[in-house]
Amino acid sequence: MLETLIPLVINKSVEVVVGILLEKFCKWLLSDANIKSANNFWKMQILVLYLDWVVRKTPLKSLPEKSQDK
Fold first, then answer.
1. How far apart are CA 60 and CA 70, in angstroms?
2. How far apart are CA 55 and CA 62, in angstroms?
3. Angle at CA 17, nearest 5°, toward 14 and 23?
4. Can you tell me the distance from the alpha carbon of 40 to that of 34, in angstroms, rounded to the nearest whole number?
5. Do 28 and 34 touch, CB atoms closer than 8 A?
6. Rounded distance between C-alpha atoms, residue 22 and residue 16, angstroms
7. In the prediction, which pLDDT does 1 show?
8. Cα-based distances in Å from 61 to 57, 66, 68
9. Among 3, 9, 52, 59, which is 20 to 30 Å from 45 by CA?
10. At a CB cut-off of 8 Å and minimum separation 6, what does 34 contact?
11. What is the pLDDT of residues 36-61, one digit of tens each?
12. CB contact burial 41-51 (16+ within 10 A = b; e otherwise)
């Protein structure tokens, strides 16, 4: 009986501990600071992708030439 009771107690204990840790992690992940940080990160990524696209689409002949005054 003891050999079946110990694994059940350990399994239940692990379930409880993992549940508590998962709940705390979700609260931390969904906090206002993390959401604002993620929002700013995505805005910057979109801006960088847009600027990269604009630079790649700009023809070279429309760019001003450098003057070579040496």
1. 23
2. 12
3. 135
4. 10
5. yes
6. 10
7. 76
8. 12, 12, 17
9. 59
10. 28
11. 999 999 999 999 999 999 988 877 66
12. eeeeeeeeeee
Question: Using CA of residue 5, residue 6, residue 11, residue 14, what is the dihedral sign?
Answer: positive
What letter would DSSP give residue 41? Answer: H
- Dihedral (C-alpha) 28, 34, 36, 41: value to the nearest 10 degrees? -160
Range list of H helices, the chain:
2-29, 32-57
Q: What pLDDT is stored for residue 70 in this prediction?
A: 53
**Spatial separation of the C-alpha atoms in residues 34 and 16, rounded to whole Å:** 26
Tell me the backbone φ, ψ of residue 25, rounded to 5 degrees.
-65, -40
* pTM score over 0.85: no
How far, CA to CA in Å, does 67 sit from each of 64, 70? 9, 9
